[in-house]
Amino acid sequence: MRTRYVAVSAVAVAVLGLAAGCNPGGSSASGGGGEHPAASGSPGAASSTGTGPDLQIALQRAYGKTTDAKTAKISATIKITGGSAAGTTTMSGAVQFDPPAEQVTVRTAGQQVEAIMVDGYEYIKTGSSWRKIDISSLTGGAPMDPTQALAYLQGVSSSVTKLGTSTVHGVRATGYRATVEVQKAAAKQGAKAQDALKNLSEHGVHSIPVEVWLDADGRVVREHSTLTMTGVGSGSMTVDSTTDLTGYGTPVHISAPAGA
Fold first, then answer.
1. Are the C-beta atoms of 85 and 70 separated by less than 8 Å?
2. Which of 16, 132, 135, 209 has its CA 20 to 30 A from that of 159?
3. In the Cβ-directed half-sphere of 58, how many Cα atoms lie within 13 Å?
4. Helix (H) and strand (E) counts in the chain
5. Per residue in 29-47, pLDDT tens?
């Protein structure tokens, strides 16, 4: 399961970031294509309807507009092909943006793991016991909180394409195809986020193709990314991730598990 968490951590840097705390290792990686995810509720293909700096600004502002909602429900599907980690991982739960916290259920390789991040610690439950991890001790530049990967949208290049409109989980949304420039994103982040992005750069990932769907208030409702990584384990693997945010403003009460 460690290899699978390595992959999940790499995708988290590009998307919404669970602090898995693993160093991917290996020698190189490259960004894959940005096709529409084949997931339930996924928007259908839409024709391009515009490009330009105004679209870039819309994505850069999405971080602030999203986190202003304070809380949301979160779900993600991560599909891995190639290598020993091949398979599908799903996550679902709730996220709090300020102060940063999240509580999710992760299902992967026939196992279910409960994870809570709050007050600078990550709590992982497998079976009946909890493991407590000090996030500041994590290696590989794992993101500290669920807002960091959203903040990476501030590093999108000026080449942004508007995909049109579609419905995501009952919400009318506008889609954008863009590229996150890792160095540009790192320049606008704090030290921990810079470590995460530096880790990607060291493994050959200098840009990340993304598709982002924003609701009428400019908040992220879906983000999709694909990365093809080489030098991980015995060969290469492709990690396709779709992360959805719904139920903005949902009451969320996240606390450390009793006895952990």
1. no
2. 16
3. 25
4. 5, 13
5. 334 333 333 333 445 434 3
Strands 161-168 and 171-181: antiparallel
Cα gap 168→246, rounded to integer Å: 9
Longest CA–CA span in the chain (Å) reads 54
Sequence-ordered list of residues with C-beta below 8 angstroms from that of 2, at least 6 positions apart, any chain: 22
Query: By the 8 A CB rule, do 246 and 18 touch?
Result: no
Burial class from Cβ neighbours inside 10 Å (0-12, 13-18, 19+) for residue 99 reads: exposed
Say if CB 243 and CB 222 are below 8 A apart.
Answer: yes
Query: 92 and 118 in contact (C-beta within 8 Å)?
Result: no
Q: Which of 68, 2, 66, 6 is nearest to 203 (CA)?
A: 6
- 191-202 helix and 2-14 helix, angle to the nearest 10 degrees: 110
Q: What mean pLDDT is predicted for residues 56-84?
A: 88
Q: Per-residue pLDDT for 242 more than 80?
A: yes
In the predicted structure, residue 106 carries a pLDDT above the cut 90: no
* Whole-angstrom distance, CA of residue 156 vs CA of residue 59: 7
Give the pLDDT of residue 202.
Answer: 66
72 to 67, 78, 122, 160, 260: CA distances (angstroms): 9, 19, 19, 26, 25
Instruction: Give the DSSP letter of residue 158.
Output: S
Record the pTM: 0.75
Query: d(Cα 242, Cα 239) in Å, to the nearest integer?
Result: 10
Mean predicted lDDT score pLDDT of the chain: 73
Amino acid in the structure at residue 68: D
